[in-house]
Amino acid sequence: MYMPASWRSRICRGSSDATNELLSLVNFDTGSVVDTLKVRDAKDVEEVVRAAIASEQPLEIIGHGSKRSIGHAMATNAVLDVSALSAVTSYEPNELIVTLQAGAPLADVLSLIDAKNQQFAFEPVNTAPLLGTPVSGTIGGMIAAGLAGPRRIRAGGARDHLLGAHAVSGFGDSFKTGGKVVKNVTGYDLCKLLAGSWGTLSVMTEVTLKVMPKPEAERTLLLRGLEDAAANKAMTAALGSPFDVSGAAHLPKSELRAKVEGLGDIAGQGEALTMLRLEGITASAAHRAGSLRELLAPFGTSTLVEDGASAALWAAIRDVVPFAAGGALGAWPVWRIVCPPASGAALGVQLARETGGDLIYDWGGGLIWAALPPKSDAHAPLVRTRANAVGGHATLIRAAEDVRRMVDVFQPQAPGIAALSERVRASFDPKTILNRGRLTRGAAS
Amino acid sequence: MAIMMPASDQAVLARRAEIIAALRAIVPGEGVIDSAAEMRAYESDGLTAYRQPPMVVVLPDTTEQVSLVLKYCAAQGIKVVPRGSGTSLSGGALPLEDGVLLGLGKFKRIREIDFDNRVVVTEPGVTNLAISQAVAHAGFYYAPDPSSQIACSIGGNVAENSGGVHCLKYGMTTNNVLGCEIVLMSGEILRIGGKSAENSGYDLMGVITGSEGLLGVITEITVRILQKPETARALMVGFAQVEAAGECVARIIGAGIIPGGMEMMDKPAIHAAEAFVHAGYPLDVEALLIIELDGPKIEVDELITRVETIANACGSTSCQISTSEAERNLFWAGRKAAFPAVGRISPDYLCMDGTIPRGALPKALARIRELSEKYQLGCANVFHAGDGNLHPLILYDANKPGEIERAEAFGADILRACVEFGGVLTGEHGVGIEKRDLMPDMFSEIDLNQQQRLKCAFDSQGLLNPGKVFPTLHRCAELGRMHVHAGKLAFPDLPRF
C-alpha cells in the first residue's frame, strides 16, 4: 500500500532533501511493501501524526520492530519508525536517572549504565530469544511493552521506573508528563499509562528512567525435585521472610525441556528446580542465604550458586530461554499469565495437565510462562477460564499470525473497565491513529 | 484569599433543601450533616489558610451509597468534593460552597489480610498506620509512611500518592498499591486490579493514584505489605557548609547505597528542633544529615561504617551513630517534630514541597536565602535529601498585614526555582489549590490539556473536585476537538479563575 500523494506532501518539511530523509521504502519479511517514515526528531513525529490524522491513515509505531509479533495485526502499512531518535540525552549516575530518546537501543543503554555499575532494577525482559528476533529492541519498546523480569516482586515494573516522558499524542501534539526527579506528584501520572500501552496512546520521543546501583553480590539458593505446589509454598515462605528475596522462580519437572543456555548443568535435563535470589553487599547476601536455607529446610536441602552463575540463571528465567524460538518448544504458543502469587501452582498444574504444556513460574508464582502444544486457538478459552478463576489474566505473547487472528491476544476486560479504557485511549488518540487494532481483535478495520 | 475557586452555581444553592432531602433518602440517619455548626469541622483540611463550608456533608458507609450519591449529583449537576481524614497540605479536600462534601470516614474496616499473597484489602478510611498495626504481629508493615500517618487515611494516600521518609528505598504509594474499587462520578462501580503484581490493559490504578480526588471516589484498596527490616540504625552528621552535606548525599548514592531514609535540616531548622525536643543536635553546624540504614544487622553495621567513611571524607564536623533504638528514635525526634518546632518560633508558617535534582541543592538553598532577604521573611529548611524533596518552612505572622501575601509570593518563587533547576512543583503534598496556579510554570497548555482530557474520560461533566489541580477549567467537548496546536493558545476566551 502506498500513501496518497497528499500524505507525502504533508510530511515534507524544509527543503526537498529533507523529504528524502523522512521517507524510505522498506520491504519487511511480511512480503508487503511498507512505507516507513523514519523520523529525525519530535517535530517530525508531530508532522507525521498530523498528516496521518488529516488523511485518516493509521500508523504503526516501531523502534527496532523486535516485538511486532506481539498483538494483533494492524490495519496499516504506514510505519512510523523512531529508531533514529537514539540519543542519550543525559545520564547522571549520582542523580540515579537517565534521559534517553525513545529509539535508543536497549542493549547499548544497558552497557552504558552497566559501566557505572547501575541497572534498571525491574530487569527488562529481552524478548529476542523468545520471539526469535535478532535484536532486543529500543527503550521505547521496553516501556511500551512493560515486560519486567524476576525482580518485579521487589523493585516493581517498568511503570515504577519511568519518571517522565515527552510524547506525541494522537492529536499530533508533543506533550510532557512527569519530570526528571523520583519524587513527583505534579499533575496526573501519565507515565503509568504510557508504560504497557503498546504504543496505542502516544508516540514516546524521550523518556527519563530511574536507574539503581547494581548489587555487589548475588546468591541463589536452589531446591531440587519439588512438586509445583511445594515449590509455590517454599517461594511464599521465602517472600514472606525478612530476608529480602529478589527473585523466586520454579522450573517444574518436565520431559519437554532440554538443557538450555544459562541454566547449563544447574537445571539438568528436565529436573524440577526452585530458585531463590538474595542480593546486596556480599556479607549480607551470604548471611541471608544462610538464614533462608534454614527457613526452607522443611522443603529439602538447598545448594548455592553465586554471582556469575547466579546471574546467568536469572537472565535465562527473565528471557524465558527454555521456551526460546530456536529451542525444542520454539513452535509452541507461549502465554504470559499474571496471577496472585500464592495461586500460581494450582493454576499452573491444572493447565499443564489439561494441555500437556510446559511452564516456568516466576515472581513467586505470580507470573507463569506457559508453552502449550500448538492448537488453532492456542488453548485460549481454557487458559482464560483458569486464569480468571484465580483473579489472574493472560496474554498470548508468542503465536503465529493465523492463531492471533483467532483469539484475543490481550485479556478481554470487564465491560466497565473496557469502556473506561477506551475513553482513556480516545483522550490521547481520538482518531485511533496510533497502532490501531493492536490490542483488540477485529478492531483494525 | 489569593486563590479563586469556581463560581458557585446559584441554581444549585437555591435547591439546597431539596438536595439535602434527596441525599437523606440515600444515606439515612446521621450520614447527612447540614447544620452550620457541625459542618465547621469540614470547612478546611491541612491547608488551614483556606476555609469554605460546604453546601452539605454526606458520610456514606457503603459503596452502594457512594454510587447513589454520585449518580444523583451527576444527574443534578451538583459538584462533589471527596475527603478522607482531611490532612491534605495542598487543599485537596477544600469544600465548595455549592458542593457536596463526600467524607469516607465511615469506611474504616480492613476487609482482608492475606499474608500468602502479601496484601491487605482495606476500606479507604483506615489510617495509614492502622494497616501496619494490623499486620505487625506477623512481622509485616505497609511501607509508605507520610508523617501524618497516625491520622491520614489510606484513601487519601492513594488520592495524593503520599510519600514519607522511607520512600527513597521503598517507593511512594503508587509503588505499593495493587488494586482498588472505584466509583466514577456517574455512579458506576469499577474494580481495578487485585492481588496480582500487575493489571491487564492500561494501568488505570497507576493514573488514579495521585489524581487528587478528581477521577473517582475510591471505596476499597489492595496494598502490598512487606516484612519489616530486621534492624535499623541511624547516623547524625553535622557539616559546616550545606554544600558539603549535599556532596555527602551524592557520594552515598554514588557508592550504590540506598539508605532507608536520608534527611537534611538547615541551621534554622536544627535550632528550632533542638529547642523543642532536645535531641542533642549540634548547634554550630550549617547542615545536619540524618541517615538511616535498615536491613539485616550484618548489612546495616557494614553500611554504617561505609557511610561514616564517606561523611568524614566530605568534611563532616560531627558524626554520631545510634547504638540503641532509643538513640535512633531521639535522632529522628527533632526531624519529625520540625514542623511544630518551627511553629514555636513563628506565629505561622507555610510548608512548601518542591523537588529538585539532588545536585541542585546548594543552588536551591542559595536562592532561598536570597528570596528570604527579598521578602524579609525567615525560612527554615527540612529536606528529604535522598530524593531531592525540599520542604522550606516560610515563617510569617498572619496578624501582620501583608505578611501572608508575601509568604505566598515567596513560596511561589521557591517552587518556580525548583522547576528552573530541573525539578517539579510538588514532591508529595499534591497540587490541590495551593500550587494550582503555578501549573503553567511547569506544564504548557498542551500538557495540561492532555491531562484534562484524561479527566474527561473519567468525569465528563467535570463535577468531581473542580477547581483543584488545573488553573483553567475547560469543557470536555472543547478539549476533544482537534484544533489545539503548538504556538496557539487554546480557548483564549475561556475565563480563568
Structure description:
The complex is a heterodimer of chains A (445) and B (497). Chain A has 445 residues and is an alpha+beta fold. Chain A has helices spanning 5-11, 16-22, 42-54, 106-114, 128-131, 139-145, 152-155, 158-161, 190-194, 228-239, 282-295, 307-318, 344-355, 380-389, 401-406, 415-428; strands at 23-27, 33-38, 60-62, 78-81, 88-92, 97-101, 118-119, 162-169, 174-178, 202-210, 212-213, 217-224, 245-251, 273-280, 303-306, 334-338, 358-362, 367-371, 393-398. A five-stranded antiparallel beta sheet of chain A has the order 5-6-10-8-9. A four-stranded mixed beta sheet of chain A has the order 1-2-4-3. Chain A has a four-stranded antiparallel beta sheet with strand order 13-14-12-15, with helices on both faces. In chain A, helix 1 (5-11) packs antiparallel against helix 3 (42-54) and helix 10 packs antiparallel against helix 13 (344-355). The radius of gyration of chain A is 22 Å and the shape is globular. With 497 residues, chain B is an alpha+beta fold. In chain B, strands 12, 13, 14, 15, 16, 17, 18 and 19 form an eight-stranded antiparallel beta sheet that branches. A five-stranded antiparallel beta sheet of chain B has the order 5-6-10-8-9. Chain B has a four-stranded mixed beta sheet with strand order 1-2-4-3, covered by helices on one side. In chain B, helix 9 (242-254) crosses helix 11 (297-313), helix 10 (267-277) packs across helix 13 (338-345) and helix 14 runs antiparallel to helix 15 (403-420). Residues 484-497 of chain B have low confidence and may be disordered. At the A-B interface, strand 9, helix 9, strand 11, helix 11 and helix 16 of A face strand 9, helix 8, helix 9, helix 11 and helix 17 of B.
